[in-house]
Amino acid sequence: MKLLTLIIHTNVQQELADRLRNMETVSGFTFSHVEGHGVQAENDPFLSARDKVVGYTPRVRVDILLQDGDVDSLLETLCGTRLGVAEHGIYWVTAVEQNGRL
């Protein structure tokens, strides 16, 4: 199992949720609201005047538990859309040693 984590701008949250709900390889996902701190690119189309003043950008963290073989195809699908992770956020993949329900 793998955990795919995405950090995206809040403006694309709803569209991403709609896409993920329609993917057979995604059985569920979690959204968490986070604040992005760091050097902001001036050409970021989602960077508002408010973001520049307060010093952080509202972001959403998305966690998706996937089978190992499904990660690459999901990333290809997401990067090939308007939601392209390279354009609107970042991602990382981590190995999951164990998972289950409590």
Please characterize this protein's 3D structure.
The chain is α+β, with helices and mostly antiparallel strands and 102 residues long. It has a single domain (2-95), classed as Alpha-Beta Plaits (2-Layer Sandwich). It has helices at 13-21, 49-54, 71-79, 85-88, and strands at 2-9, 30-36, 57-66, 89-95. A four-stranded antiparallel sheet has the order 2-3-1-4. The chain is globular, with a radius of gyration of 14 Å.
The N- to C-terminal Cα distance equals 18 Å
What is the number of E strands?
Answer: 4
CATH architecture: 2-Layer Sandwich
The secondary-structure class comes to alpha+beta
Q: Which strand order do you get reading across the main beta sheet?
A: 2-3-1-4
Helix proportion range: 25-40%
**Strand share of the residues?**
25-35%
Count of domain modules: 1
Runs in which pLDDT lies below 50 for 5 or more consecutive residues are: none
Can you tell me the CATH class? Alpha Beta
Helix tally equals 4
Say what the CATH topology is. Answer: Alpha-Beta Plaits
Backbone shape? globular
Main beta sheet strand tally, sense and closure: 4 strands, antiparallel
Radius of gyration: 14 Å
Instruction: Give the H and E element order.
Output: EHEHEHHE
Q: Provide the residue-averaged pLDDT.
A: 83
Key structural traits:
102 residues, alpha+beta, Alpha-Beta Plaits, globular
